[in-house]
């Protein structure tokens, strides 16, 4: 199982564990086996939905709200993904039970259903709360549904991340929704995620709108644990106060020092590109860091995004980028190339003859399909070939190149 090689725990002293978000993780951790990273990203996602469109930062004419989409991936129940979510849900039930009742949903089956969940009542016209947190304990099942012919679910999710106008036009119905703030929290096992994620999901799909978070069981607690109610209520009161204030904030700017730091970070991100299809998965680093910075600022009760908020956001994004690199670092965006790379890795030093690759990978396809896939892998330095003169047509044998580095460096600032 691929997950066994993931060894990096979420740092206990990470700048991402700042403010009330860090207080929540530190409160829960002694009583739970849940991964701190999973606790953190889901708590932030829920906070973002609560704030809704009440706070935003404007960059290049685009409004960025506190909305983030996260997927926690681990080893089945051993990753304690469900436990991490239960703690987040519990504190929000204390913060505002009515909000949880009306705005936390699961089991989205279609794009039409997702739009209907935030649209005003079609019969009475009664306004609905436009905030929505979709929790999918079986994210891969939703991913399969959105890949079915005729489904608009993937398209709606893209619009939801952008906080754009949602629309639906059918023969007998026309629905338009503005001001909706919809977040996604998904849980998946690593193996199932890799099996159900298509190349089109990675290249040009929704993968770059998701913060990927690898999670492992952090502690061993045979009898479980539960955060004392008085501790949970105390923190919930502080969080509620900050979130209610954030809902009335409006546009948030960066401090002069934060603008200088942001410029340096922005140049650094623009000068760095991940290899292969991974560059598509990580292509929204800039807006994600802004959204996370805004969340940290709102939880601090700050009037503007400051340098520590950017530092916390970068630290969390670095972990998400490492998680994505582990999950998709070997993905080229071409399913045939991916299959070839896998076979050549298994073959080791023996390699595989081109004719055998054709028989095993694309037997019923044209030779051009194989040629295109091999060229892509070769251009990315993931595979190599050797030709031997046989006195007639040269024989061609393919080998796995040196393993692609999976290390994505932390974002390093460059002078503005």
Neighbour order of strands in the largest sheet: 4-5-8-3-9
* CATH hierarchy, class of the largest domain: Alpha Beta
Number of DSSP helices? 17
CATH topology of the largest domain: Rossmann fold
Major beta sheet summary: 5 strands, parallel
The overall pLDDT average reads 86
Query: What's the helical proportion of residues?
Result: 40-55%
Descriptive report:
The protein is an alpha/beta fold and 416 residues long. It folds into 2 domains: 11-328, 3-Layer(aba) Sandwich (Rossmann fold); 335-400, Arc Repressor Mutant, subunit A, CATH 1.10.10.10. Helices cover 47% and strands 16% of the residues. It has 17 helices and 15 strands. The strands form 5 sheets. It has a 5-stranded parallel beta sheet with strand order 4-5-8-3-9. A hairpin with a 6-residue loop joins β14 (383-388) and β15. α5 packs across α7. The longest helix is centred in the last third of the chain and has 22 residues, at 307-328. It starts with 18 loop residues before the first helix and ends in a 16-residue tail after the last strand.
Summarize, please:
The chain is 47% helix and 16% strand. The chain has helices at residues 19-28, 36-51, 81-95, 97-103, 111-118, 139-146, 153-161, 190-196, 199-202, 229-246, 256-271, 278-281, 285-300, 307-328, 335-347, 354-361, 367-379, and strands at residues 55-59, 62-64, 69-74, 104-105, 131-136, 166-170, 173-177, 181-189, 211-214, 250-251, 253-254, 304-305, 352-353, 383-388, 395-400.
């Amino acid at each position: 199982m691929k997950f066994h090689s993931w060894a990096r725990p979420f740092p206990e002293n990470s700048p991402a564990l700042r403010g009330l978000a860090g207080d929540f993780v530190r409160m829960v951790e002694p009583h739970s086996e849940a991964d701190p990273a999973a606790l953190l990203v889901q708590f932030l996602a829920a906070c973002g939905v609560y704030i809704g469109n009440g706070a935003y930062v404007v960059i290049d004419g685009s409004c960025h709200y506190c909305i983030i989409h996260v997927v926690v991936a681990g080893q089945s129940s051993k990753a304690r993904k469900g436990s991490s979510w239960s703690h987040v849900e519990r504190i929000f039930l204390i913060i505002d039970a009515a909000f949880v009742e009306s705005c936390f949903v699961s089991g989205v089956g279609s794009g039409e259903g997702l739009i209907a969940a935030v649209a005003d009542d079609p019969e009475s016209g009664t306004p609905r709360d436009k905030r929505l947190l979709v929790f999918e304990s079986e994210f891969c099942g939703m991913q399969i549904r959105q890949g079915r012919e005729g489904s608009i679910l993937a398209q709606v999710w893209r619009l939801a991340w952008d906080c754009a106008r949602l629309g639906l036009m059918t023969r007998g119905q026309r629905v338009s929704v503005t001001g909706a703030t919809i977040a996604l929290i998904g849980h998946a096992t690593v193996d199932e995620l890799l099996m159900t994620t298509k190349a089109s999901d990675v290249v040009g799909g929704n993968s770059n709108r998701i913060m990927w978070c690898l999670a492992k069981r952090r502690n061993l607690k045979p009898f479980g644990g539960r955060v004392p109610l008085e501790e949970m209520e105390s923190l919930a009161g502080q969080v509620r106060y900050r979130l209610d204030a954030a809902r009335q904030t409006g546009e948030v700017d960066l401090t002069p020092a934060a603008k200088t730091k942001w410029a340096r970070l922005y140049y650094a991100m623009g000068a760095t590109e991940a290899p292969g299809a991974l560059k598509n998965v990580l292509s929204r680093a800039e807006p994600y860091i802004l959204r996370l910075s805004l969340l940290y600022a709102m939880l601090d009760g700050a009037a503007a995004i400051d340098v520590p908020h950017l530092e916390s956001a970068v630290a969390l994004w670095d972990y998400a980028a490492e998680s994505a690199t582990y999950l998709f670092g070997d993905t080229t965006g071409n399913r045939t190339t991916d299959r070839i790379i896998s076979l050549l890795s298994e073959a080791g030093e023996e390699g595989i003859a081109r004719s055998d690759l054709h028989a095993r990978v694309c037997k019923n396809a044209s030779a051009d399909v194989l040629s295109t896939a091999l060229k892509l892998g070769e251009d990315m330095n993931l595979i190599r070939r050797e030709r031997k003169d046989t006195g007639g047509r040269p024989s061609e044998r393919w080998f796995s190149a040196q393993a692609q580095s999976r290390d994505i460096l932390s974002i390093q600032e460059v002078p503005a």
